[in-house]
Amino acid sequence: MTKKDKKIQTNPPDILLTNYVMLELLLTRPGEKDLIHAAQGLHFLVLDELHTYRGRQGADVAMLVRRVRERLAGENFQCVGTSATLASAGTYQQQQFEVARVASQLFGTVVYPEHVIGETLRRNTPHKNLQNSNFIQELTQRIFTPTVTSSQDYQSFVTDPLSIWIESTFGVRTESNSSRLVRAQPRSLSGKEGAARDLSQLTGIEEHRCVEVLQAGLLGGYDYTRK
User: Fold this and answer.
1) CB 79 within 8 A of CB 65
2) 42-47/181-183 β-pairing
3) Any residues with CB less than 8 A from the CB of 224 and at least 6 apart, and which?
4) Taking Cα atoms as reference points, which of 143, 174, 172, 183 lies closest to residue 160?
């Protein structure tokens, strides 16, 4: 046992960061009994990257969670899972239901859909009706007389008609039957299903020119994230 291990045994921490393999060892090794004893009445068990626990590994972790619950859980013991990529397709409510189903299997307890917290998105650019004739005119004029994106201040950048169109196309969209903002479906710039074709049809500007303008606009947004 290292000096660091001895220090942890002598002064058990309030929060212990580990992985499921080491947690299994902590529960089974005689030398860890003091640490396990100190963990009695555990309030929270947090699993990060919840989407990785699938198949055989998921079954192993599910059994481990149940052993932790049986051996260490306090009266108000709670399991928490975090993941940026766990949600499936469908509406937000459908995603909540599916995540709750998976979490219930993994944690060995009922997880209610309303307890699943998703991401909250907000626009950086103003909301505009992209089919509005005035907006289309502004967007067309913007493409015909491009500004140097890197020289714009932030306020000018986010109110730029091109920035508004880019965020509405590549960034966020309003979920059907709700006002909730969700991530837009990924798509390419060029090609039959590319965004440049949509921009070309909307403004009447050649598609190759729309590709160039979109590339410049996206790179301009990237530059602002680095400032």
Assistant:
1) yes
2) unpaired
3) 154, 157
4) 143
Length of the chain: 227
Helical (H) or strand (E) element with 73? strand 73-81
DSSP class of 116: -
- Helix residue ranges, H only, the chain: 3-10, 20-28, 33-38, 55-72, 92-107, 133-144, 154-158, 161-166, 195-203, 207-225
User: Pseudo-torsion of CA 22, 26, 32, 34, nearest 10°?
Assistant: 120
pTM of the shown model: 0.77
CA-based max dimension of the chain: 75
pLDDT at 76: 92
In this structure, the strands spanning 181-183 and 172-174 are antiparallel
The amino acid at 148: V
Are the C-beta atoms of residues 169 and 195 closer than 8 Å to each other?
A: yes
Unique residue bearing structure tokens 């001895």: 6
For residues 66 and 108, the answer to whether their CB atoms sit within 8 Å is yes
What percent of the chain is modeled with pLDDT above 90? 70
Mention every residue, 6+ apart, whose C-beta is less than 8 A from residue 129: 135
Residues 6+ apart with CB under 8 A from 10: none
pLDDT over 90 at 18, yes or no: yes
- Which pLDDT band, with edges at 50, 70 and 90, does 227 fall under? low
Contact 164, 178 (CB under 8 A): no
Centroid of chain to Cα 195: 23
